[in-house]
């Protein structure tokens, strides 16, 4: 059985009028020689041990296309399908979107997608979405092409860092007073991961797991605003240490703060008026 393989690690150096190509040959068991093409035309056939070649007398400021192909004892000349082009990588906190243009070669079969040297997908399409990424991690993606004779190209590599998600915000829920004990229970529906900091009277009172979805504040610890609202605020902290906005706990009507009629006000409107007048008099 003749195993057909392309050259590897093809590199080039150039001057104003020359190009030097170098590469690594496959195992020479069935390798007959190396063929070099310039702009689609064969310019030389080399021995199966040659791994470098210099092209001279080129025109300055001119673009050339060179191909280094392997020729085997059964007469097969292996030609890679060419590389994908115009690769675009877009990173989001929970995904990476890759897109590209396919080569126009007739022997193209499909694209192999590698992440950190591990193959994760293959497709003959022009995009792929990786939904298994983690924020703050860096990934290396390589896209190679496979020919219809199973020759894989060297590939195009892209490195991307996954951004953090937006800071979390406490959402949903309600608060209520236990009429027997005077304790207050504050609930939320999100977040369910990370931590939630509870502030009472402007000071940090407790830090609880967000998954608890509630906290009970004893009557003796409760503080109130001038208008009789429970003086309680919350701040969500995600698993990456990001803190969201400090907000008032949601009320039973779905608002962003507790209304006075949701809980029992600890003093009457007359007391409020008297207090206000007293403050004004000062």
TrEMBL record:
Q: InterPro entries from the xrefs?
A: FN3_dom, FN3_sf, Ig-like_fold
Residue ranges annotated for the Fibronectin type-III domain, each copy included = 3-94
The record ties this protein, via PROSITE patterns, to: FN3
**Domain of life according to the entry:** Eukaryota
For this entry, the protein name equals Fibronectin type-III domain-containing protein
